[in-house]
Amino acid sequence: MTEERELTLEQQVAALEAERDAHLNDLKRVAADFDNYRKRVARDQESLVVRAHERLVKELLPVLDGLDRAVETSVRHSGGDSQTLEEGVRLVHRELEAALRREGLAEIETNGHFDPHVHEALLSQPSDRDEGAILEVVQKGYRLGDRVVRPARVVVAAAKPEDDGGR
Fold it and tell me: Which of 39, 80, 121, 133 stands the most exposed, by the fewest C-beta atoms within 10 Å?
């Protein structure tokens, strides 16, 4: 009978160890789920902050464009007192640009060839330059972090039409 009792105790110990292992696995799964949840919430919150910055930057871009135009117009039509205006507008422009840069805004490069991911072609013109080269920037484009907030609007070089011999 002692052997039966020992066998029963061994079976009970084995059953309790199996139950313990099952509970331990459940705890590990819950811990992993919680860790994944915590990481997802952190990513979502970071994404929310980025979108809030993007909204602010989109609202300020027309102001920056207006200052660009004012400086350009002032330089073209400079007369008597316009230098003071120009200096004031340039100062405001620099301050606004610096504030937007601190928020992560960066101008999209427009030197080189057209990239549909960051440029918007408004027009293509025949040119001696390589096909796809950017000839003119109509409106600057900007990135906020790795996202394009507004593509650069550009005029792109097209191949010159073949001379058909005067037909």
Answer: 80
Residues 6+ apart with CB under 8 A from 37: none
For residue 4, what are the contacts with CB-CB under 8 A and spacing of at least 6?
A: none
- Residue 59 tokens read as 């609202």
**Cβ-contact 110, 154 below 8 angstroms:** yes
Reading the block at residue 127, the tokens are 């040119």
pLDDT range class, residue 4, cuts 50, 70, 90: confident
CA distance 37 to 43: 10
Q: How far apart are CA 158 and CA 138, in angstroms?
A: 17
User: What CATH architecture applies to the domain 105-162?
Assistant: Roll (2.30)
What are 93-151's pLDDT values in tens digits?
888 888 888 888 999 999 989 999 999 999 999 988 889 999 999 999 999 988 999 99
**CATH top-level class of 1-103:** alpha beta
Domain ranges of the chain: 1-103, 105-162
Cα 9–chain centre separation: 65
Single-letter amino acid code for the residue at 164? D
